[in-house]
């Protein structure tokens, strides 16, 4: 389905040595060092010699963030503080430039795209890409959220969107989401894939009451019981429990990894999509960097399952890709020190360890 090559580690030691010989104590730049190494490994994929690597200066090019929106039938089960109509209203807000993700992308230099993956109200705004898989998913606790053919169509559309950005020179991509009820879907995916009880996966989402959290747990438990026969197949798991936007984020992650792009993973919902992506093709994990640990219960468990160390801890739970957007300056800083910081030899400084 996706031909994703694992990152070749042949130059790993050379990259690490270059980092270690910068004018600093070993490891003194913390996670910036691991980011620099991973990004350099990703971006140097086409190099064929150690000599070429020594002269290579990796840079983040045309960073792009795609927000996918979709409506969830499970919202009718009383699992959110907002009605499904808010999804389409927020799509209009994204198109008009008024949401948090718009502000952060403008400030930090991301190219932002908005995709209607399947909402109740079709957007006719030319600034919104129409990649609709339907109007709304079915309630995941009473039937399959969508068909397998919808999942496959979502992957194809997401792949086209990623390829379009790649052809514009993008080598670093992030994804955001909007969809009332989608923390319930993400929690169900997490529980199914990691074989965890719903109570460890369901969180407060947009800030719901304890009563609503109890309802969410019950809904996820019903969904897990109903669809358990499908959980050995990640595509069928997506069809049973996913959302239109989560499906397309999963497909987009896989498509970006196939192209050798760096994938910046946002919070709870996007991490659930990343988790599914690794079950479809484990090599996709090589291309992922994780922006932040959200305030949503369950996110840290997913990060642990993916052996991921997030860059930021800001107690975010907004979605939209906001955490991924905020991580960009740190990623740029990691490559700046890798490319431009003097070595001990360059600066005539006595090497310290």
Automatic annotation (TrEMBL):
Keywords: Cobalamin biosynthesis, Glycosyltransferase, Transferase. Signal peptide: none annotated. It holds the Pfam family DBI_PRT. GO terms for molecular function: nicotinate-nucleotide-dimethylbenzimidazole phosphoribosyltransferase activity. The active site is at residue 320. It is an enzyme of class 2 (transferase). CDD domains: DMB-PRT_CobT. The keyword Transferase applies. Its EC number is 2.4.2.21. GO terms for biological process: cobalamin biosynthetic process. It comes from the Bacteria. Pathway: Nucleoside biosynthesis; alpha-ribazole biosynthesis; alpha-ribazole from 5,6-dimethylbenzimidazole: step 1/2. It catalyses: 5,6-dimethylbenzimidazole + nicotinate beta-D-ribonucleotide = alpha-ribazole 5'-phosphate + nicotinate + H(+). Belongs to the CobT family. Catalyzes the synthesis of alpha-ribazole-5'-phosphate from nicotinate mononucleotide (NAMN) and 5,6-dimethylbenzimidazole (DMB). NCBIfam families: cobT_DBIPRT, PRK00105.1. This is Nicotinate-nucleotide--dimethylbenzimidazole phosphoribosyltransferase. It comes from Pseudoalteromonas lipolytica.
